Model the fold of this input.
Amino acid sequence: MAVRPILRIGDPRLREVSRPVEAFDTPELNALIEDMFDTMAAADGAGLAAPQIGVPLRVMIFGVESNPRYPDAEPVPTTVLINPEYSVRDDSTVSGWEGCLSVPGMRGYVPRYRAVAYKGHDQFGEPVEREADGFHAVVFQHEYDHLDGVLYPDRIVECDKFGFEEELVAAAMQAEERAGA
Ligand code: NI
Done:
């Protein structure tokens, strides 16, 4: 087990389309999953995709119990998802602030589908199939994008709602003071 370095935006490996996993329950795959959980935990992440540690495979993990980076987030089941597919269950969008371990220190306001159904396999080859909405659906869509070389800044529509978290928090506090809140 090991915490692996996380690639940051600008590294071209984050922009590649990752390839499917062909064999389940191998020592290599199980070691990758273990390293991904160690890496995600060390960074207080809500999810991690294999290309973020330089492994171009369609593997993602996610899960939130309580997370200091997302204090208001509802719980998301701890999940290993390999070769995922999804369909949109509600094509209305809901926007929220996202961060990414590959875009450290920054947040952006990103529209996502409200509800999706996803399926794939865990590392042992067992099928995983779920419907997700709310933060669960957001985390899934964010991690899925990593497998296609897409990062959340690509999805931002309101470009003024993107910046360093410290500046955004300071601006929000000033706005609250002006409003007398
Ligand atoms: Ni990310």
